[in-house]
Design a protein that fits this description.
- By secondary structure, this protein is α+β, with helices and mostly antiparallel strands.
- The protein is built from eleven helices and eight strands.
- The strands form three sheets. The chain has a four-stranded antiparallel β-sheet, with no helix packed on it.
Length: 488
């Protein structure tokens, strides 16, 4: 066995038993701690977060945001999203593949029937009738069929967990798009309400200019401020439509209804996520991730197929037989029945290196599956750590921005009162009101980032799917309680 393949089984935690006959490798199973024993170091604790049980139900974390419209969107996405439908079709294909592999244990029986008649000067006038059957069966002498079944079972598990991972990602996208749409709708309402105040400022500046109290500079500054705010409204409307259309695609319907659902009532505030101070240890999180489970199943399938190909170097035992009868009339069709049975062994002697090349190819595929598995582990750790920091900093930003908004509101009230009393200039009023508008938008943005960080964190922790909703047969090397079993 090549050094690289030995690395595969050592690093992936897959134990191999070398059979004395032909050096054929077969699974002996994996231990429950396979994740910790992989070559990628999995830390015992998180670098940027305290380990503690999270209080949120990860399988339906979006309900913790308290947005009924989001709940409706997610339910429809799970039922109608086309990527999920594609995953379901691939799962059905994998189920069919497992049935096909299991059929290798059974004999192949085919029947035949025919009628013939001689032609020519001396031909008989009777018809010759014949009925027969052929049977072929291969003994699973060195485990080729059982290994193929193990690989197909792993393929089925990988397809199932891939489907779960698609649901995890789709639910997260729907939640994030809905949060961002809520934020845009609220910022659009802020821009429109601000425009009303700026209309008042413009009218006030005009009155004071007509009274000779201020120059026309105040009027032009007020007009410029109003135009700048008005210019943001079409952009916000366009972005809101784009978000609504993205949600429509995710939930499997044409654009239109989602925008109406987001705008038919007064703008709803950005959802406030629950506090989640900690979560499970890294190894426990990795076990919950469906993408990592799919990568593990792919690794098992690839390793099992090495054994499938290697059995081509060993003898194959096959039994074949025929049974037939013939007559010139239906009444005598079964008077005489003949048949034969043949059992034999075949052994590859020379094929120009084709089988060795196929073994090398299978080993290379297994190496690629290992690399993909390790990359998935690293990506999962990265996502959790980054999302944990994002959530913490977003919480801090919301608290700081709330304080800034309170100060900006007080400053705007004072500046407007002083301007109306002639105690301050118009430039001061403009600056303060621009600060107020900026603080309001920043607070909405920080709240949206906080909710988005919550979605990304729970998504990274493996939320958005439930194992009870799926029934994927685990490959034999991943037996319960880590018991080592030979793959069927």
């Amino acid at each position: 066995m090549k050094t690289g393949v030995g690395r595969l089984f050592r690093r992936g935690g897959l134990a191999l038993t070398t059979l004395a006959l032909g050096g054929c490798a077969t699974f002996a199973g994996t231990r429950d701690g396979a994740i910790e024993e992989a070559s990628v170091p999995v830390p015992a604790d998180w670098a940027f977060s305290d380990t503690a049980p999270i209080a949120v139900d990860l399988s339906e974390y979006w309900t913790a945001l308290g947005d009924p419209l989001l709940d409706d969107f997610v339910r429809q996405a799970i039922a109608e999203n086309r990527d999920i439908a594609l995953g379901i079709a691939r799962l059905d294909q994998a189920r069919a593949g497992l049935r096909l592999a299991r059929a290798g244990y059974l004999p192949n029986v085919s029947g035949r029937a025919g009628v013939s008649r001689d032609v020519g000067d001396f031909a008989r006038e009777e018809f010759d009738l014949s009925v027969g059957a052929d049977i072929a069966w291969e003994a699973d002498l060195f485990g080729r069929i059982s290994r193929q079944i193990a690989a197909s079972r792993a393929d089925l598990a990988a397809a199932g967990y891939s489907l779960a991972d698609v649901q995890r990602l789709i639910v997260g996208q729907v939640a994030i798009q809905t949060v961002q749409a809520r934020a845009l709708a609220e910022q659009l309402a802020i821009a429109r309400s601000t425009l009303v105040f700026q209309d008042d400022n413009l009218q006030l500046a005009r009155w004071r200019n007509q009274a000779g109290l201020v120059s026309s500079l105040d009027v032009e500054q007020a007009r410029a401020q109003r135009a700048q705010t008005a210019a943001t409204i079409p952009l916000l409307e366009s972005n809101l439509v784009a978000r609504a259309n993205a949600i429509a695609t995710l939930i499997g319907e044409p654009p239109g209804r989602t925008y109406e659902a987001l705008t038919e009532t007064e703008p709803q505030p950005v959802p406030v996520p629950p506090a989640a101070s900690g979560f499970a240890a890294p190894a426990d999180v990795l076990r919950r991730r469906p993408d990592l489970r799919a990568a593990e199943a792919d690794l098992i399938a690839a390793a099992a197929r090495i054994g499938v190909v290697r059995t081509d170097l060993l003898p194959a035992a096959r039994i074949s037989g025929t049974i037939a009868t013939g007559a010139t009339s239906l009444g005598g069709l079964f008077d005489i029945i003949t048949g034969n049975l043949f059992a034999g062994l075949t052994q590859l002697i020379f094929d120009g290196g084709r089988t060795r090349a196929r073994i090398d190819s299978a080993e290379a595929i297994a190496e690629a599956s290992l690399a993909s598995y390790e990359r998935t582990v690293l990506s999962a750790l990265e996502e959790v750590e980054t999302a944990a920091v994002d959530q913490r900093t977003a919480d801090e930003r919301v608290a700081i921005t709330e304080e800034a908004l309170d100060a900006a509101e007080n400053s705007a009230f004072l500046a407007r009162s002083q301007y109306e009393a002639g105690l301050t200039d118009f430039q001061t009023l403009l600056v303060v009101e621009n600060q107020l508008l900026s603080a309001r938008n920043q607070l909405v943005g920080a709240q949206a980032d906080r909710a988005t960080a919550f979605v990304r964190l729970t998504q990274a922790l493996g939320g958005g799917w439930s194992a009870s909703d799926y029934d994927f047969p685990l490959p034999a090397p991943y037996a319960a309680q880590g018991q080592a079993r030979t793959a069927e």
